[in-house]
Amino acid sequence: MSTTLPSGMIQRTVDGGRPLRRSSDRITSPLPMRRESDLPPTSHTVSLVIPAHNEARNVPWVFNQIPSSIDEVILVDGASDDATVRMAAHCLPSVRVVQQTGHGKGDALRTGFLSATCEYIVMMDADGSMWPGEIPHYVHFLDNGFDFVKGSRFIAGGGSLDLTPVRSLGNRALLTVVNRVYHATLTDLCYGFCAFRRSFLDDLHPQAPGFEIEAELIAHALRLGLRVAEVPSLELPRRSGHSHLHAVSDGRRVLRTLLAERPGGRRTAPLGVGKR
């Protein structure tokens, strides 16, 4: 609310009617738009894609942390033989469960992408290593003109509680390759917390079958000249179970993917992955 002072000035007040005195005081009425270029805030719909294989013990923590602003949650089940699907439905009755027909994380993500219906797609893991509460930061950058947003553990505000020396060394080596080959200035590569505009899915046309799909998406975004942003992200330890990642073999596949998709290299023709 607000009151008019004798001079005609507007004094803003909080719920109790007292004047604003601290920076923490909340204004109950929206600030007026002051410039001709000011536009009212827009709302874009968001699909969250979560591939999972035998993650029943991790799903409750992940699903309980999903912001209410997410419009659609898609769990891609990789033939789990535990209670992953039942647990997801129990924690979030509105979840859409899609069964993966192929194998590998890449196939699972593609299945989820094709099932998404919202304007933005966010991808994250089901093992509890990524905090869903960070999703609004990714959406903020998409709302402000970026096309592809990726998490980084190596910029201010980010970090990792689960990065082994082998993984750290491999990530730095692969990061050097992608920055040199694609003339980029990224700070992190092998981290699968990403978001992008669904309208670019056809152009990104992910094809990789395994964990290297994360690097493939980033390489395609750079090659296409999309506006790419990094946001700080804290990698947490897997809450339960064992990782499906194999650092050496998966690292080799990431390297092959980066070199194969480099500018001027031979790129695999689209296979209609993004067709609807």
TrEMBL record:
UniProt superkingdom: Bacteria
Region of interest called Disordered, as start-end residue ranges on this chain: 1-42
InterPro entries listed in its UniProt record: Glyco_trans_2-like, Glycosyltransferase_2, Nucleotide-diphossugar_trans
CDD domains to which the protein is assigned, alphabetical: DPM_DPG-synthase_like
Cited PANTHER family: RFBJ PROTEIN, UNDECAPRENYL-PHOSPHATE 4-DEOXY-4-FORMAMIDO-L-ARABINOSE TRANSFERASE-RELATED
Listed name of the protein: Glycosyltransferase family 2 protein
Lineage of the species this protein comes from: Bacteria, Bacillati, Actinomycetota, Actinomycetes, Kitasatosporales
Residue ranges of domain Glycosyltransferase 2-like in the record: 47-203
